[in-house]
Amino acid sequence: MGQVTDVTKSSEKLVETANEVAKIFAERAASNDEADRFIEDNYTDLKSAGLVAAGVPSQLGGGGASIRELCDILKIIGGACGSTGLALSMHTHQVAIPAWRWHQQEAARAVVEPLLRRIAEENIVLLSSGGSDWIGGSGVAEKVDGGYRITARKVFSSGAPAGDLMMTGAISDEDGERTVLHFGVPMGAPEVTVLDTWRTLGMRSTGSHDVQIDGLFIADDKIPMRRKAGEWHPAFQMIATIAFPLIYSVYLGIAQSARDIAVEIARKKPVSHRTQSIAGRMETALTAATLAHAHMIDVTERNAPSAETINDVMIGRRLVEENAIKVVELAMELAGGAGFYRKNELERRFRDIQAARYHPLQKEAQSEYAGAMALGQSIDTIF
Fold it and tell me: Are 215 and 333 part of one and the same domain?
């Protein structure tokens, strides 16, 4: 019982810490956004605060935070600075996946424990290439003696300037079958280059640059997973189930903060039925997004990734997206002309929230997946 209490106190402290650093990140957010400047200082603070290792099991030297607690942390930070929240979510879900395996799959402990210990001891930052890979995969893996030579360009690699290890893959075309090989790419390797490509509508400070990989050798024993390209694999059921509640915590935080800014502005105006109606619709949309996100967390806590679980998570993801965007749109309307000024920091939330549209499963794919499930049809190639 004492150990459980200690873990609970530790994870509660991480949430308190997130609130503390969020105040600092909020002060930096506007100038970073205006300059397209990467949030390098925020990464330094995240490491010092123990938030980079928050998801590592406490037994391995990390914060021991649960998925629910990690969602709280990301929501808080996302509300202060969407770019920091989103970049951290990409690292955090790459930590949460091996941590889940460490807790749930005893046979996998020997495989994932070295990486988790490195995160806790060295504060290394993991990158995800999910935005350019997903189920279809990308890049070329050429078979050579003892391994593969990798050539690829990975887009949407959030946090790229601060990354130490990119969790990615490439496609090997051997014997007429396209196979995705999964492996880690050391960002300090001479064959790896971060390209300065991130000039965007919103999330301007995530450093989600393209990463070019030119001829990097990956040994056979450094490839922990192989799967058929273009089809759902059980590993991706696990990945998607864990990753998306974390990622969409950030968008919920942005929506909540936009709501708070708009309400503060509107309270200074004369009472009117019109503003009451807009505020009421905004509150309703925020509640819908919050409930949908809570549903995503509940699904993750089943600890049973499956095709059905993906359906539940992605329905929640779609509802968070639509309602979080609606919240910020109504916040702009409620604030009126004041929302158009950068100094009120509502327009940045309006731009940042648009990124919620672009993570898998996007609208049409999600609808097709849910429809196929309802009709009892195959979902294997719907992504």
Answer: no
Domain shared by 7 and 48, yes or no:
yes
Q: What angle do CA 25, 26, 28 make, to 5 degrees?
A: 65
Tokens 């980079």 map to which residue? 52
The two beta strands, 140-144 and 147-154, are: antiparallel
Q: At 319, is the secondary structure helix, strand, or coil?
A: helix
Range of the domain at 326: 234-374
CA distances from 119 to 16, 61, 312 (A): 21, 9, 30
Give the CA count within 13 Å in the CB-facing half-sphere of 93.
28
Residue at which a domain ends, from 99, 124, 149:
124
Where in 75-221 does DSSP place strands (E)? Answer: 126-128, 140-144, 147-154, 165-174, 177-186, 192-194, 211-219
Q: Do residues 344 and 361 both lie within one domain?
A: yes
Return the biggest CA–CA distance within the chain.
75
Instruction: Among 95, 124, 153, give the residue marking a domain's end.
Output: 124
Tell whether 238 and 360 lie within a shared domain.
yes
Domain-embedded: residue 363: yes
Kindly state whether residue 379 falls inside one of the protein's structural domains.
Answer: no
Q: Which two tokens stand for residue 132?
A: 């350019």
Give the pLDDT of the chain (383 residues) as one tens digit per residue. Answer: 334 345 555 778 999 999 999 999 999 999 999 999 999 999 999 999 999 999 999 999 999 999 999 999 999 999 999 999 999 999 999 999 999 999 999 999 999 999 999 999 999 999 998 777 899 999 999 999 999 999 999 999 999 999 999 999 999 998 889 999 999 999 999 999 999 999 999 999 999 999 999 999 999 999 999 999 999 999 999 999 999 999 999 999 999 999 999 999 999 999 999 999 999 999 999 999 999 999 999 999 999 999 999 999 999 999 999 999 999 999 999 999 999 999 999 999 999 999 999 999 999 999 999 999 999 999 999 99
Tell me the two tokens of residue 294.
């809570």
